[in-house]
Structures are given as structure tokens and as C-alpha cells.
Amino acid sequence: MQKHYEALGKAAANYVPLSPISFLKRAETVYGDRTAFIYGEIHRTWAQVAGRCRRFADALKQHGIAAGDTVSVIVPNIPEMFELHFSVPVSGAVLNTINTRLEAETVAYILDHADTKLIIADTVFSDLLRNAFDILGRDIEVIEIVDDQADTPPGSDRTDYESFLLTGDADATWHLPDDEWQAISLNYTSGTSGRPKGVVYHHRGGYLMALGTVVTWPMTEHTVYLSIVPMFHCNGWNHPWALASIGAKIIYTRDPVPERIWDAIQHHKVTHFGGAPIVLQMLIESAKDAEEPVSPPIKVFTAGAPPPPAILQKSQAMGLDVMQVYGLTETFGHITECLWRDEWADLSADEQAQMQSMQGVGFPILEQVRVADKSTGQDVPRDGVTQGEIAVRGNPIMKGYYKDAAATDDAFKDGWFWTGDAAVMHDNTYVQIRDRLKDVIISGGENISSIEVEGVLYRHAAVQAAAIVAIPHDRWGEVPCAFIELREGHDATEAEIINFCKKHLAGFKTPKKVVFGDIPKTSTGKIQKYVLRDRASKV
Length: 539
Known about the structure:
Rossmann fold; 25% strand; GMP Synthetase, Chain A, domain 3; single chain; globular
């Protein structure tokens, strides 16, 4: 009797909007006396953190910040940045974390586009904000964070974070959103191809992504997490919300340089951290004289760019249990994982690294991931060869692009989110990225994966970083051009690099030009190929 089922509606007892801010309330109740943060001499319990977040949220409300207002944040990975991931949405406002390495022009664009009502910024970014305001032609109110553990300018006459916090009520009521579809944060794409787009997250997606991460990594209340993933990037891959759900211990270093990372690992017995492949590369370089691998192994998520197999192999030798995950700003961060398969155990170390360089299968909280021909809507064969575009569907997908309905409609064509990543599907259903669609090089009718060529370049002893882009060619239309950063103390010539590639690649895939020098990257380690394409047009 269908009508009897339909008569049973939602009630307060059986339906509560999903929101990751609920995790902090649980952490306060269950893990209140346990350490939540360690930052130098600062140690705070989960009860203290929850109290501070509740108080700051009330201060925002009393200050006139209303539901749906944008609060922009320019802060490195320090405890206050974590707190803001709860206090801002608890107030009903939308958290906009801004990349701390952006130039003033882009910061000004984001502040204007995001309709920012209030800024919370570390004092080290005072000059950046001043320049951004000059470009905007107006000021926006700023609450300053004065960090005693950083070499930052002294505070100005602006209100500081701690003073502002004290204006709130420590016993203020904690409210979940009325609607789990309500916006929780506004994140801007990393700008690898021009002006960033504003990506709107919802409470439901944040909640499910956090739980999906805990299940997939896995993590427990005994997790000791080293904060390396920038919290301005996909809200730290949603890790702040995930960590609260289990009452983990979080270690902050502010600046995640290799010596501080290794020091934290040794002193705090770190069990988990995330980072882009460039972080792994830095750790490999800094640990080259280490005699013993880390024990027990540390669980590491890496994402942001497909890691070369050589880096995965070296990381494993250091005692880092690396799993590649894949996602975009539009998908709340990582949504696929390269799960280890038992049949890989008998492969050589090099072959295992090749397997682990795939993007893998969908997270449990993702409904579906497919590789398809966008023009026909048909899935490509699971042959590991036929190329299509990754398309996904599920709850950890953005609400849409802020103030850009046309871009939103295009991204959600036919009921799927189209990632723009070219990939193949293997017979075991593992996805493997071949390239960003705009980065595929078509030379004489042959498709060349820049990722494949870059993977070979990383195997050269002198190569610190590598990127491949297309340059025009009279006969072939376009051919690969290699940009290379050399390791300190190493030298290489163009001829040497090209000859090395010829040993490992088909002739048409071999770079025809090599440019040495610094490679521009975003703060999350993504190479800005649009900058390199401009450079390549002039070589």
C-alpha cells in the first residue's frame, strides 16, 4: 500500500539536515578533554576549540554578518583557519578561503566577485590587501590575526581576531542550517587557465565528503594529522570537517617546508597527511641521506596532478604509504581513489608504482564515475586505450558556479558533471587520466599525452620538475615542448634530454624543444600551463 508509506513524513525526530559543522559539536561532547591542536606551544582541547568557534560565530552575528553573507579569509594553515571552517558557517555566513599566494589583482577580483562583506587575514598579508583595495578602489573591513609564531608585521589599528572573538557569547546556541543545500563555502578554482571561477559548496556535500574520507583513508580517533594541504584549497580537501568527526589530533607548522614536516613527523608520531606530488618531491629531496624509512608507514593522500611513478616508488621507499586520489575544486576535492589490489603484490616495484599512478575508482559517497564521449554521451570501451572525458555524478558535487549560470549549465550537461579531464577506463574499472583535454597535443593526427611524456622526464636524474606543452610545427601542426627545472647541483643539455626521451618514447612523442628554467605553479603544486603555452609561443 503505497499511500501508507507516503503518509509517513519527515519529522524533527527522524530528519536533520546534514552539515559538517555538527561534527565539532560531537567532538566537544565525546573528545572534549583530548588534544585537538598542537601549534608550537599552543595546545587546545576539542572542548576549547568548540567554545572558541561558538563564540566567534556569535561575534559575527552581533557584528551584522547575516545568513548568506560572504566572509573571505586569507590565512595560512594555523589553528584560526581551522576554527573559521566552523565558526563562519555556524553563523550562517559563507566561508571564502583565498589562496594566500595570489597576486593583488586576482585577490581584488575574488573579493569583488564574491561580494565579500568581511575579511579575516593574517597580518603578513597586509600589503597584499592594501594593494588589492587600491585596485578595487574601495576598502573592506578586516579582522586581523596576529600570529606570534610567525615573522609577520605588527598589528595595525584594526580589530584583532582574539579581541573580536571575546565580543561573542561563549554560551551562544549552536544552530545547524535549516536546509542542507544551503551554501557553506565559496572556493575559487586555482587559475591554471585564466580567471578563476567561484565554486559553491553545500552543507550536505561537506558532510558526506568528510565521512567518505574517514572511511576511505581510513582514520580513527588515534589519527595524528599533519596539516599540509592548504585549507584554502577545497577547504583543505574537506579534512578539517573530517578530523572533527573523529576527534583526531592536528599538528600545525604554518609553513610546510621539508625540515618542519620531518620534525613534526618525528616528534608527534604523525599517522596521516595529504599533499600534492610536489610535496612528495620535496620530501624525497630532503631525505636523500636518510638511512631508514619511516616506521610505521605514514598514510598519505596525494592529489592535484597525476604523480609520476618514479615519485611514488621513491615515496614508498621512505616509508610513505601513498594513495593517489583525484578530484577538482568542483567536486569538494578528492572523489576517486587508487585502491590497492592484491594481484599487484607480485609485481615489481616499478610496475606497482605504475598501477598506483592511476586515478582509480569512485569514493563510496560518489554515485558514479565514467569515461565517456561528451559529444555522443556514450561510455568508452574498458580497454585502457580509448580516450574520453571523466564525468561524475553524486552528492559531493558543487551547487554551481557563483554568478555564472552559463558555465554551470555547460558543466552539468546531460545530468553529469564533466571534468574536462581526458582519461581511459581499464577493464578493472580503474580510471587513468591521460591529460586535461586542453593539454592533449595532436601531432600529425596522433594524440600525445603530456602526462606520459612528463612521467618519462621525471625519471631523468637531473629533472626536478617537468611540463609539456604544444608548440606550432609547419609539418605536424604541433609538437611537444618540454619545460624543465633542474635539480640543484645537476646539469643537462637539450640534446641529452631529447635523447633520453627517445629511449623511452615513440618518436612523435619525444619533445622537439627543451626550455630550462623555473616552472610557474599554483600554491597547490599545479603547473600553470597557460603561462607555459604563452612562453612556448615565443621560443
